[in-house]
Amino acid sequence: MKGARVRDLEEVYRLHYTQFLRVATAVGGSEDAGHEAVQEGFADVLRHRRSFRGEGPLEGWVWRAVVNAAHRGRSQRLVLAPLPAAGPRENGAPDDHSDIRPWLAALPERQRLAVFLRYYADLDYRTIAAVLEIEVGTVSATLSAALTSLRRSLARAAQ
User: Is residue 54 scored above 80 in pLDDT?
Assistant: First the structure.
């Protein structure tokens, strides 16, 4: 497919807005910055929809625009803002990410983004690769390194 259709972009927006907001909030440092980044990212893809070459998933192309917008809008110092609620977990208790925030903030940028995209937005490795402009195998290695680092932090905290 050459170019992106407006109705396809609208569908991606409607279906995934909450996921876009969660990641953009985490990257941008506040929920307000997250909302702005999502809006700016979608404005960018609508303006440039004819440049979509169809070489990867449309959703990945939109994710890249939203993540880039969140990067442009964030402050110099990374602050992991409270994430908009994703709803209760299966056991009915709300998710609480406050205990891992410092560890996430300490991860290198690519590892942190890969974690956000995989576990906060539930994207598959192919889409994450398209968003981060890396190979699928690199996504796997990046997530493995991030999880190893987080496990070490958890082990140190438990001592």
Answer: yes
